[in-house]
Amino acid sequence: MFRLILIIGSGSFIGGVSRFLTTRFVQNTIISIFPFGTFMVNILGCFLIGMLYGISERSNFLNNEWRLFLTVGFCGGFTTFSSFANENFSLLKDGNFLYFALYTSLSVFLGLAAVYLGNLIIRII
Fold it and tell me: Are 48 and 117 in contact (CB under 8 A)?
């Protein structure tokens, strides 16, 4: 059990650092009140987790430890619901209702679509 905790924790660490760097890069590249950085990591993370679960279902390419490292650890650390909720709260508090509606609806819709697409690509390959 301790080994699995270390495996997941290592993946979370790498995912969290990757999220920070990716979000910072996107936010410094695209200047906007819309939170593109968190939006991008969440959609990318959804696509990646869809692919990883597709790989897991299709073959024995990923053993249980690698699957946990990549999905629960890395993807869990890379994507972030708490930042998503906080950014939505800030948009509402500042009266940016259009951006709030766009961010929330696009994140949910495109997140689900990205998981499906990632899984579909693996099934097709």
Answer: no
